[in-house]
Amino acid sequence: MRIAAEGLGVKGPRGWAVRGISLDAEPGALVAVEGPSGSGRTCLLLALTGRMKVAEGTAAVGEARLPKQLAAVRRVSALAHVPGVTDLDPALTVGEHLRERALLQRRFGDSLRGLLRPPGERAAEAGRRVDAALAAAGLDLDALPKGPRTAVRDLERLEALRLSVALALIGRPRLLGVDDTDLKLSDDEREEVWALLRSLADAGTTVLAVCSEAPEDALRVSTGQIRDEEPAEQGPQAGDEEPAEEGPVTADQQPAEEGPQAGDERTAVVEDADQGEGKADAIAETGRA
């Protein structure tokens, strides 16, 4: 799936997360969203997969245009290993995660024609999808300590990432977004992750991978620190005259009290009349209540 963006910007409650992103990736490309933590990498990943609204610029994912066709982009994309979005439940086993995702795909991901097929055919299709996703993610259930009954809390970081990728692939997305691909991994494990993502891209799936350091063969998109800060209050500039401090006012300096002027009595009478009318209106309102 082709991704094209020009001048893309994503804005959050605290200001701009990322701005000025331009990208042109062909179908089956491996795109590395590179930058330090907190530079808007995940926001860009969510925006390009239809999970976060674009605030400025233009973008197209396949035939869908952002930000107007978010739902269309979500239907053809999937996310993996995104904190707060695709978190694995540590109390569940690997097999339970796979069965749950397959059930959700059968209920909500298939077409109406697929839902009308016999239950046996649908179950067999779900099993084939799970097996294909595990093979593509490189996760061997037999190599786990307790096989599919292994709890997620007992998985290594690389195994947990592979499981998250496998769950995303069950829906057969054309665009896959993976967050924190190299977080807390050794050099050898990082090489394994990039080899996995390259294999998915070679199979035709466009891959967006967030990382702190991109490999040389990936299409790089760099993010930077962008903040929409309020301007600081400016102090007195050079040449500005500060007002002199005022000392106590002497009796000679105090203004003399002014006596009643011509026309003051007329003003007082008008004010008294206005106040009387206001009171009368208030009494009338109270009576009506």
TrEMBL record:
Q: Where is this region: Disordered?
A: 222-289
The record ties this protein, via Gene3D superfamilies, to: P-loop containing nucleotide triphosphate hydrolases
ATP-binding among keywords:
yes
Record's keyword terms, sorted: ATP-binding, Nucleotide-binding
Instruction: Outline the extent of the ABC transporter domain.
Output: 3-248
Looking at the Swiss-Prot or TrEMBL record, what is one Pfam family this protein matches?
ABC_tran
Q: Which domain of life is it from?
A: Bacteria
InterPro entries named in the record:
ABC_transporter-like_ATP-bd, ABC_transpr_LolD-like, P-loop_NTPase
Q: Which GO terms describe its molecular function?
A: ATP binding
Mark out the compositionally biased spans (Basic and acidic residues): 276-289
Q: Which PANTHER family match?
A: IMPORT ATP-BINDING PROTEIN
- Its protein name is ATP-binding cassette domain-containing protein
Species source reads: Streptomyces levis
